[in-house]
What does this fold into?
Amino acid sequence: MPTDVLASNPDNLVRIWDLEPDVLCDRHLLGEHRELHAVWSILTTGKRGYANHPETLRWRGRLKALYVRHDGLVEEMTRRGFDHRSPLDPALATGAGRQTEVLESVERQRERLRLRDCSCFS
It folds into this structure.
C-alpha cells in the first residue's frame, strides 16, 4: 500500500498493532481486540463492510496469524484482570501463522503511540 494513503489520514485506520500487547494501554489493548474481531468476522463470514480496507486485506490468507494475535491480546487482557468472553473458532484459523505485512513500520507505530495522551509503554 502506498505510504501517502496512510499519511493522508493514518488515525482513521482500523488498528491491529504490530507491537507486543503488553506495551499497549488498556484503551488501545481493548480497542485492538474489538477491531480484530471485526476483521475476523469480515474474513470468516464474507461480510462486505471494510472488506477492502487495508487492515482487513493484510490479514487475508493469514487467519491463523490473526488467531495467534488474538490469543496474545487475550493473555494480556487476562493478566490485567479483564474477563474475556469472545473466543475465536480455532477451526477457522487457517492460512499463514505469521503476519509478514505491515501498514506502517513498527518504529512508526511506536512513535504514534508515544505521541498520544495515553499510558502505552508505561
In short: The chain has one domain: 3-114.
